[in-house]
Amino acid sequence: MDTSSWTTLALGAAGFDAAQWWQLFGHFALLSLLAVGGAMTTAPDMHRYVVHQHGWLTDAQFAASVALAQAAPGPNVLFVAVIGFNVAGLAGALATLTGTLLPSTTLALAIARWGRKNERSRALRAFNTGMAPITIGLLLATGWVLMRPSGGQLAALALAAATVLLMMRTKISPVWLMAGGALVGAAGFV
Amino acid sequence: MSSGDVDSPPAPVGPKPTPTPAQLFRAFTHLALQGFGGVLPVAQRELVEKRQWVARDDFLAMLSLAQVLPGPNVINLALMIGDRFAGTRGALAALAGILGAPLVLVLVLAIAVQQVQHWPFVIGALRGMGVVAAGLVVATALKLGQGLRSNALGRFWSAALLATATVAVALLQWPLVGVVLGLGAAACWAAWLKGAAEDTGA
Q1: In chain B, what residues touch A86 (CB-CB under 8 Å)?
Q2: pLDDT band, residue A1 (cuts 50/70/90)
Q3: What is the CA radius of gyration of chain B?
């Protein structure tokens, strides 16, 4: 690769200066502490900032970044890295990912340690007892929301039901189930 | 949740697991790279069922805390599990594992996919994967939910809270923060009172 290709990889096609890097990092760091339930809950504001306020990305690029990170293996939070990469290459990815993770991981670690020291406390036991059904409810809500794009198609419901059954009754790896889903989708059944 | 299900064991059997930071890094890398559509179902499979590093109810408790805290659930979970076994180094090892290889992979894909994203079969494959991802999450919910049978709030209230949370967020689309704080506060308050009743032997 020539020098300009490396530059593009590192800083993105449009170039990016230090001030902009700190702006990007700062905004994502701010959103980090608001992201109860995951970075995706703050995605609308990321969209507003990156697409509308600064014009660093188009609508389509933003949506494509999210879809890519969801399809690829690994935590879906990596969608912020793809957004950052599309804005300003590796530097941009670094800005968005560290911004998104630094504040929340620091807080989470501190609170988890407090929790471990106080395991037997009545407050923590009450928390675990009370939150358990709600956590399960939120997971089911996530499953429901993920089904929305398929619009209630019978084939999609059948595929989802088959997935649940296979996960519950067998030890088949989720990777194979995903591969199956990709084939079924590519073949046009869902 | 009948006897035909693959077990989500309530507690690890055998000697207490003590993974090192290196083992945590490898384990989390391994499970993250299988996590198409999301890592949580794989994490539950690997850590609770296969390696039995974490008891099912502990996993659920950590996930509950991870959800209430800001930040991605599975990231917070990795931190907590890593920290539990090997302190800060463990937490960082788990974080590096769950993010490192996937980050490299996703950036490579970001460069490559620009060429093929308009192909119809790619769009279809992504759609199919989305549906399977939904199924995986529901299955994880059902597995973790097995512990609700013995929840101190009782089956009726557990079910009611569960259903309310699901409907509020998925159907009514109320803001997540509000649901978690509001419903959560009520549930924890009720559990606190239940704890008082048990302590006094009422």
Answers
A1: 110
A2: low
A3: 19
